[in-house]
Structures are given as structure tokens and as C-alpha cells.
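Course assignment 3, question 2. Fill in each field.
Student: A.L.
Task: Predict the tertiary structure for the chain below.
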Amino acid sequence: MPGWSLFSVSDNTHTSYVKPEVDPIISKFLDYLRIEKGLAPLTLAAYKTDIEQFAGFSQKRKRNLTTAKREDVREFIQQLFSNSVDGRSVGRKLSALRHLYKYLLLDKAITHDPTLNIDSPKQWKVLPKALARAEMETILQGPQPTSMRKESVAISMRDRAMLEMFYAGALRVSEIAGVKLEDLKLEMGYVLVRGKGDKERIVPLGRSAQDSLTAYIKDSRPVLAAGRNSPFLFLARGAHKLTRQRIWQMVQAASSATGRRASPHMLRHSCATHMVENGADLRTVQTILGHADISTTQVYTHVALDRLKNVYLQHHPRAKLRTGNRKLRTG
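Answer field:
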């Protein structure tokens, strides 16, 4: 389908959109709906918009309406949700695609319906947005003192240690704010975290997080405590407890160098996503995140499946073997 330009998948949002010529498949389908089903012009226009949106999405994946696969439909829906398109609109778009592919099957234009067994929107759990690894590295290196005063340097070291702990242990913002000094076991490489329902879990910390926390406790925390006592690990000036709002502000300020406004929750999900990408099983991720039920962690299943597919393609001797190219080597 020539003529598509910078197509955006967000609902009714197009960037530098050049209207293409109507795809013959869409045109025939709309004729069928108008003549055979007697649909109203406004309904036909909605079908046309929804199907053209999916066609543009498929083209970016080097496919068209007749070659699209189930994974394309799923990714399309996932991207709609990620762009905050409401469930009713997503359901309408999925319904339009179901009707299209039912028609194409009857017309013998395709042999398989890619919308088959796709869950309805209300059953979807949207994968939280995660940062790329390079973006995460930029954030972790970000906090810089606003001046060379001791207090400013101390705040910078504290923020760096908090960011390291966010990413290392996938902590929630309330958990970071509530961590006590006695909960940190640096010599053993973990922190005791109290999560939802006051449930405790042990969260391991990597070497980078341990080093940042060691430096913070030695050189930064005493400056912020100013001679006062506090049970909390991370302190505001005068040994006060950090508020959730202040932690949010810190994360957003640290992420500004990436061009994105990250949230504490995004750091948590970046940790989980990167672990799964590196081969961690979902049960381990469930334990670290503190999910009571594995079903909550299963939003990361598609990340694990993508990695499984890549590993299979790299290592199975016949994964890339094409039909008609099965000559055995002799010698």
C-alpha cells in the first residue's frame, strides 16, 4: 500500500499522514458491507478507518492484510493500549478486523484467520512501559550536584543510590520510601522489603547498587541526618523521611536526559523486563517483584517468548532451514 507516511497507531492520531489510495481488499470489503449487510455510511467509515490503521501498522512490519499473522494483531492491540486508547475503541477495531478476515476466508483470499483466539480487550493486561537498557544507564549516571556544597553533593549521592536500588530490586516507590537502615544487609547483598499487605520479601542487590549504597551511607547520609537519628535508609534534609512525591520528582528529573519522563513504576518494570530478556524465569521475577499471584507477572510472558524464539532460531540446527534447500553434505 504505497503512500503511507509516518503512520501513528494511537487512536485517531496521525503524524504527517498522507492518505493512501484505498486498498482493493478494503474497497471490496466495504462494498460487501454496504450491499450485502446494508451498513450505514458512518459505520462503513469507521470500518475503513480501523482497517486502514491496521494495514499501515502491518506494512511497517513488512506484511499486508492477507499476510498478517496472529502476532501482528496482538502487537497492534498492545500498541493501542500502550498509547492509552480506551478498551471500547480497541474492541471496535478488533471487531472490524474479525469481520474483515471472516469475509476474506469466505472469499478464499486467505487460509487462516489471524484474529482467531485473540482475547477481547477486557481480558488484556497491558505490558507496562519499560526503558531501554541504554536509557537506564543514562538515568543511573544522571544525578549531578547543583553545587559543590556538601549538602548538594549528599543529595546527588542519595538520588544515585535510590535509582540503583529501584533498578536492582524493582521496588515500588512506597517501598523505597519505607526501607529502614536495619533492613539493608550489604554484607550479604540483599535488602529486606515490606511490600503490599506488609508482606516481607528478600530482594538481592547487584554490585553496582551495593557500591552506590555503601558510598551513600558513608559520605552522604550523615550530612543529611545532620546529627539527628532516623530509622529510614533514605533521608531528606534534617533526617526527615522522603515523601513519595519527592521521589517521583527525583526520578523524573534524572530521566530528563533521555527525553522521556520516567516514573518509579517504569524503573520497576524496566528491571523486570530486562531480567526476562536475559533469561530469568517468571517465578523468579514474581518473587523479586513481590507479586502474590503468578498471573500478575504473566504480563511479561511475551518478552520471555520473544527471547525463547530468538534462542531457538540461533541454536536449533534446522530452525533456518528452508524447504527446497535440504541437500545433505557428503564427505
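Instructor remarks: Confidence is low (pLDDT under 50) at residues 1-20, 323-331. The first strand starts at residue 184 and ends at 185.
Grade: pending
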